[in-house]
Structures are given as C-alpha cells and as structure tokens.
Amino acid sequence: MHILVIEDNPDLVANLYDFLEPRGYVVDAAYDAGNGLRLARSDDYDAIILDLMLPGMDGLEVCSRLKDSGSNTPVLMLTARDMLDDKLEGFARGADDYLVKPFAMQELDARLKAIIRRVRGEQSREPLKVADLKFNPATLHVERGGKSISLSPIPLKILTLLIRQSPRVVPRREIERRVWGNTRPDSDALRAHMSVLRAAIDRPFDRCLLRTVHGIGYQLVAPDENQD
Fold first, then answer.
1. pLDDT, tens digit, 9 for 90 and up, residues 36-87
2. Please, which residues have CB within 8 angstroms of residue 13's CB and are 6 or more apart in sequence?
3. Is residue 20 within 8 Å of 3, Cβ to Cβ?
4. Could you give the CA distance from residue 116 to residue 120 in angstroms, rounded to a whole number?
5. Where are the alpha helices (DSSP H) in 5-136?
6. Does residue 205 sit in helix, strand or coil?
7. Residue whose C-alpha is closest to residue 19's, from 95, 82, 80, 110
8. For 157-200, how does the pLDDT look when each residue is reduced to its tens digit (9 = 90+)?
9. What residue ranges define each of the domains in the chain, with the CATH number in brackets?
10. Closest listed residue to residue 197, CA positions, set 228, 227, 156, 225
11. I want to staple 220 with a disulfide (CB 3.0 to 4.6 A). Which of 76, 105, 166, 184 is the partner?
C-alpha cells in the first residue's frame, strides 16, 4: 500500500517510516502543506496521514482542498487536540478518521487498513465507464459498444487502475507498483501488457481510448477529452 504522510515533525515521520515500511507500506513524506498537496495530486495513494497543525496552512484546509478537487483518497488526521468539536470539524472537512497524539503505531496501522478497506469497498460496487467502454468491478465484466471483452489478469488490473483514474495520466512507475508491487518487472513487461490491452479495447473499434503519453505514462480518456 502506498501512503503519503503530511507531517512537519521529522521525528514522527521517521518513526512512521520505521514502523510502516517493514509491514509492506510504501511511504512518501511532505513536511509542509504545499508539498503535501502537490504530492497528493501527482500520485495515486491508498491513504494520506495528515497532521492538523502544519506550517502555512492547517490540515483542515489541506483536507478541504483535496476533497474539493475530487480526491477519493482516505485521510487519517493526526492531532494533539482531543476536543469533540475539533474532531467534528475534521470530519466535516472530509477526514475519514481521526487519531489523537500520542498514539500507538499498531492502532494507526489498524485504522489505516480500516479506512482503505472501506473506501475500496465503496469503489468496488460502482460500475465504471469511459465513453462506450464499461467495467463492472464486482463481476470483472468488460464490454465496449455492447461487445463483451475478455482480458487476462494483468491487463485487467491495468484497465481497472486506468479507468478509475480517468482522465488522469497515470505514470508508468505507478502502474508498475500497483500491478507488481515492490518487485520491478522486466523493462518491456508493461509495454507488452499495454499492447494486449490496446488490442482488446481499441483495435476492433473506430475510436481509440487508450493513450500513451510519451515519457510519462498512460491515459484512458474519451475521444472528446483527448487534446491530441
């Protein structure tokens, strides 16, 4: 799981790295609100650990801006404030859970997993669509123009990521991490699977939805949204 930590206390960030990384998390960190927002908008995280008190802009404003931009990434807010009104304000701004400092790392781990499961469960029930391409995450059924499409597991994983993120351009390294985890594939593996996916969802049809953004990654986008 890929986690973003937005926290200005370097000792706490170091402790989070030491605890989470051996448990399989990939952790990025930002020590101020501006860099936190930039990272949150540039990559696809499973969850964000967000401190309430940050230099320049507090965590409530960061959370509001993320949710206003359409982000569905769950947010676990950290704070030294334990008043009910403070917690209610955090939830009102879009936080998914609230943890008061000091806290046990095991509790943070459990809360992270809980909010990630909850958000993934909500997402998995929603049919996804780009133009005439449809994907049902519950049944794994793919069709385009009413025609059923069969995909092997890895192209299906890639399609799931791209259609959830559409029209965002998803970087190559992000796709590789989502599909293969921390084990980097052969340099040509992703290209080969993208070719299989393109052959299934684009080549039999008049309009292409899968776009290669050279030097960056891939994008699944309706033709009227494609600026090329």
1. 999 988 877 889 999 988 888 888 899 888 887 777 789 999 988 776 777 7
2. 5, 7, 29, 31
3. yes
4. 6
5. 10-20, 33-42, 59-68, 84-92, 105-124
6. coil
7. 110
8. 999 989 988 888 888 888 887 788 766 777 789 999 999 999 99
9. 2-124 (3.40.50.2300), 128-225 (1.10.10.10)
10. 156
11. 166
CA proximity to 109, closest of 208, 31, 172, 21 = 21
- The candidate with the shortest Cα–Cα distance to 99, out of 110, 20, 55, is 110
Using the Cα atoms of residue 103, residue 107, residue 109 and residue 115 in order, give the sign of their dihedral. negative
Dihedrals phi, psi of 61, to nearest 5 degrees: -70, -40
* Two structure tokens written together for 74: 């769950």
- Helices then strands, counting H and E runs in the chain, come out as 8, 12
Q: Which two tokens stand for residue 118?
A: 């909850």
42 beta partners: none
Buried b (16+ CB within 10 A) or exposed e, 99-134: beeeeeeeebeebbeebbeebeeeeeeeebebbebb
